[in-house]
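pinned: reference chain
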Amino acid sequence: MAEDRIRVLLVDDHQVVRRGLRTFLEVQDDIEVVGEAGDGAEGVARAEELKPHVVLMDVKMPGMDGIEALRKLRELENPAKVLIVTSFTEQRTVVPALRAGASGYVYKDVDPEALAGAIRSVHAGHVLLQQEVAGALLSDDAPGPGTGRGPSLTEREREVLGLIADGRSNREIARALVLSEKTVKTHVSNILMKLDLADRTQAALWAVRHGLTG
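pinned: its structure tokens
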């Protein structure tokens, strides 16, 4: 059914890239491309207008770039999950993007099926935090959200936080820890409050920097 499909907005300054992404995604039964934008400012406006579930966002664009557009969406409290599109040589841009609230990233040469899987994953509430980015976070000396604090997380909250960093959804965390999904949501809310973090992505970054991942 159309209402069950994942609504995706494409934001990239290269029309040929957008066309290629649209061509592939439109053959997916559970994904619908609802619009396109050629720069960050237009992307923000279209996201507010079209209410997509996932925004596929390029990083480097003229005018407002992807990271600034992401920050703007968060200021507007737009609920869309943002999946950053980058290349391996642009790894340094991934960390600021994740700090700004991105749910993950994919490379521009990503396998089409892997791209569809990534879209489904972030839509389901997962955080796509891969090993090379974890390494970049750990070697990054710049202070991040929650850095420098000594919050009194309970042992259970630390377990939940570690699983968030592993990319688990609330449902998967509930199964792993034999808890109700409602209890997990309460733990997540408490973690964000104690660490003064805005969302799960920032929580995953905090966990990586403090060695709570598996």
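why pinned: Strands lie at 6-11, 31-37, 54-58, 81-86, 104-107. The first strand starts at residue 6 and ends at 11.
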